[in-house]
Amino acid sequence: MSLRFSRFPTFFHWSLCWLAVGPAAIAAKPPVQQEQTPVPAPLSSPFATKVLDYLPGEGLYVNDPNFNDPARALGAPIGGGTLLADSTKLVTLGGFGGSITLGFDHTVADDPANHLGLDCIIFGNGVWIGQNPLSRWSEAAVIEISLDTNGNGLADDLWYLIPGSDISDPINQQRNGFYLLPDDPYAQPPLDNPNGDGFEAWWGYADLAPVLKRGDLDGDNSVDNPWVSNESFYTVPDDPLTVGVDAGSGGGDAFDIAWAVDPLTGQPADLPGFDFIRITSAVWSFDNWFGEVSAEIGGVADVGGRAFRGVLRP
Ligand SMILES: [Ca+2]
Ligand SMILES: [Ca+2]
Ligand SMILES: [Ca+2]
Ligand SMILES: [Ca+2]
Predict the structure, then answer these.
(1) pTM of the full structure
(2) Of the candidates 161, 164, 178, 143, the residue with the CA atom closest to the CA atom of residue 262
(3) 8 A C-beta contact, residue 211 and residue 122
(4) Side-chain half-sphere of 268: how many Cα atoms within 13 Å?
(5) Does the residue 228 lie in any domain?
(6) Domain hosting residue 249, numbered range
């Protein structure tokens, strides 16, 4: 026994040592961080992902299930070209005063690195009449943006106005109850540009410009690159101040967040970006063929900037 005992003390001793020291040694180690299952970051979409509100105005199409689903304003638009709009993914805002409020899965930044400083594009169903870019069938809608300043995910923060070309005095327009006079004869379609080739007379609204077919890189309604993605094609802004659609752009109506003003003071909003966008039918007009003039929306895109540059662009 004693021999055996003398042989085993080592193990026994070590065991005792371990029992005595081990826990202390473990306790002395820095706390091991609890391993957590990595949560992949949600993929950011350049297109609007949320409908926060949909309040269509009166109109012929607001009871038509093909035109009254606000979810049709989410995701990428479906372009039909400059002659004929594609009507398979549009939501109507109805007549004057009808609106939709949309959100993104990220804040759309006012990024000076964006092409021409343009940060956001709204896609509607405007077309060139007789393939003449100087004459557009356009149904102007006012654009407002809001930053989720209180961080509650709700569009309950201050709204700022993108002053369109017809809104020279936002304070006075606000006093009249809206940003455009309902009988403004100049904002009614067709919008015939008196400037000739060169600068547009009307800009800064939604639903003015055509949406090109995906991959039509030169605006001739023939697809040049059928492999280009929605994320690449429909995030390239057209210069809204010049006639025609810039090469490589998918069309739509682009604006710069830096244009936004406080409608109560007319002063620049100085927003770093926006989380919510409200688009409101701004024209009161009726056409015997097409019914009321009502803006339609098929998508809203973040031009890119920090979130998408180099990731989705070719
Ligand atoms: Ca900008
Ligand atoms: Ca909020
Ligand atoms: Ca083409
Ligand atoms: Ca243009």
Answers:
(1) 0.81
(2) 161
(3) no
(4) 7
(5) yes
(6) 50-308
Q: Which of 182, 208, 15 is nearest to 121 (CA)?
A: 208
> Ligand 3 (ion): which residues have CB within 5 A?
216, 218, 220, 222, 224
pLDDT band at 185 (very low <50, low <70, confident <90, very high): low
Total domain count, the chain: 1
Q: Is the Cβ–Cβ distance between 297 and 207 less than 8 Å? A: yes
Is 79:213 a contact under the CB 8 Å cutoff? yes
Cα–ligand 3 centroid distance for 56 (angstroms): 35
Q: Which two structure tokens, joined as six digits, stand for 273?
A: 């970006």
Q: How does pLDDT run across 76-133, given as a tens digit for each residue?
A: 999 999 999 999 999 999 988 899 999 999 999 999 889 999 999 999 999 999 999 9
Cα of 120 vs centre of ligand 2, distance in Å, is: 20
Which residue from 156, 230, 244 is spatially nearest to 200, judged by alpha carbons?
244
Phi, psi dihedral angles at 211 (to 5 degrees): -110, 120
Q: What distance in angstroms lies between residue 52's CA and the mean position of ligand 1's atoms?
A: 24
- Is the residue at 138 inside a domain? yes
Does a structural domain hold residue 3? Answer: no
Cα 159 to ligand 4 centroid, rounded to whole Å: 26
